[in-house]
Design a protein that fits this description.
391 residues; alpha/beta; Aspartate Aminotransferase, domain 1; two-stranded antiparallel sheet; 13 helices; binds pyridoxal-5'-phosphate
Length: 391
């Protein structure tokens, strides 16, 4: 291993403030469904500029409640992307609905609106858009397709807190039910946790009941008026969330700086902007475009098509650097092959990206020297010579 120790793929940035807020909850004696949970929800809603937000135990739980809110169930097929973390489709299966996958745009890697339109074909129950790798999906087009078919849209913004769409609207604040996630590698964390932005007060009340075993609004009674779950976020987790929210601007800014450092160094070893389409290229992630703003969640490059990605990962590992294939296509995972009969070749853009993709170490406290070392080692492994520093 080279000097400088191992470079991990991700690492949360936790400040003293989070610890102080957790201690405040511990002293209060109210560890669940208490004032810190409400404080987290209202701070989050304020930050996003929405009326309300419902905190739950994970992004997956939030997605499940969003799907229930749409009433998607047996017999329903929902247009969505195969290039996502598997939870974004699993949440449909929980309710007996099914994903109807469509291919993605080669530059943005989010749903290609024309593919979504063709897949919807007037018979889908809705569209579940995913803002993958923090890039905002083409929401205006997706909303138009859904409106023409008279169906709803759910936004999976688990990876995209802070991203901005082409029309200037912030991801998750467009009036669609939207979901955020707070696992430790996300832009802000609560350890585990999620947030549902409900489309209105009725949906918010339903989600608050469903996260708490279906309890009726009067919590003094043990009255359960619907099917519910234990999807509660503790006040200890909410305290971490409040602290992280206070630092969110700084955390997002640091992520963007680390991404810029990567892009600059990778460009210096000949990495290309997405879109050129030469399979021999090492391809950078798409940079901000017009009003579209990525919220940097991961830093994922496309290796040259002829590279042996697993060998590159193994060699980086040997040199003390964590890297990962990211993401595998959902339709090629065993449960989906078995259930839907999906197979290779159905979504060529997503599949080709997925075969070539490599997530490099990325977090807000990643030092410049580590970025330099990762790029130098990658350059050496790919036979592209040492990385030059930025001019
Ligand atoms: C796109 C996407 N959707 C949903 C989730 C699920 O979130 P959680 O892990 O908090 O359940 C994730 C988590 O990484 C995700 O990346």
């Amino acid at each position: 291993m080279s000097a400088g120790g191992r470079i991990p793929l991700a690492r949360p940035s936790i400040g003293e403030r989070e610890g102080e807020l957790v201690a405040e909850v511990l002293r209060s004696g109210t560890l669940s469904l208490g004032p810190m949970l409400e404080r987290f929800e209202s701070a989050f809603a304020r930050r996003l500029g929405v009326d309300d937000a419902v905190a739950v135990s994970s992004g997956t739980a939030a997605l499940h409640l969003a799907v229930r809110g749409q009433g998607w169930g047996p017999g329903d097929e929902v247009v969505t992307t195969p290039l996502s973390f598997i939870a974004s489709s699993n949440c449909l299966l929980y309710e007996g609905a099914r994903p109807r996958f469509c291919d993605v745009d080669p530059a943005t890697l989010t749903i290609d609106p024309s593919a979504a339109d063709a897949a919807a074909g007037g018979s889908a129950a809705g569209i579940l858009a995913v803002h993958i790798f923090g890039w905002p999906a083409a929401m205006a087009e997706i909303e138009r397709i859904a409106a023409a078919d008279g169906v709803g849209v759910v936004e999976d913004a688990a990876q995209a807190l802070g991203a901005v769409c082409a029309d200037g609207g912030e991801v998750g604040a467009r009036g669609n039910p939207a979901v955020f996630a707070f696992y430790a590698n996300k832009q802000m964390t609560t350890g585990e946790g999620g947030m549902l932005v409900p489309p209105g007060p009725g949906a918010a009340a339903a989600a608050r009941s469903e996260r708490n075993q279906g309890r009726a609004p009067n919590m003094k009674l043990m009255d359960h008026d619907r099917l519910g779950y234990n999807y509660r976020l503790t006040d200890l987790q909410a305290a971490v969330g409040v602290g992280q929210l206070e630092r969110l601007d700084e955390l997002l800014r640091r992520r963007a700086e680390v991404a810029a450092a990567y892009s600059e160094r990778l460009a210096a070893i000949g990495a290309a902007e997405p879109g050129a389409g030469d399979p021999a290229d090492l391809v950078l992630p798409l940079a901000d475009r017009g009003r579209e703003r990525r919220s940097w969640f991961v830093y994922v490059v496309r290796l040259p098509a002829a590279s042996d990605r697993d060998a590159v990962i193994a060699e980086l590992d040997r040199r003390g650097i964590d890297a990962r294939p990211y993401l595998p296509c959902i339709h090629l995972s065993d449960p989906y092959r078995e259930l839907l009969g999906t197979r290779e070749g159905q979504f060529p853009v997503a599949e080709e990206f997925s075969r070539r993709s490599l997530a490099l170490p990325f977090h807000p406290t990643l030092p410049e020297e580590s970025v330099e070392r990762v790029v130098a080692e990658l350059a050496a492994i790919l036979g592209r010579g040492a990385a030059r520093g930025p001019s």
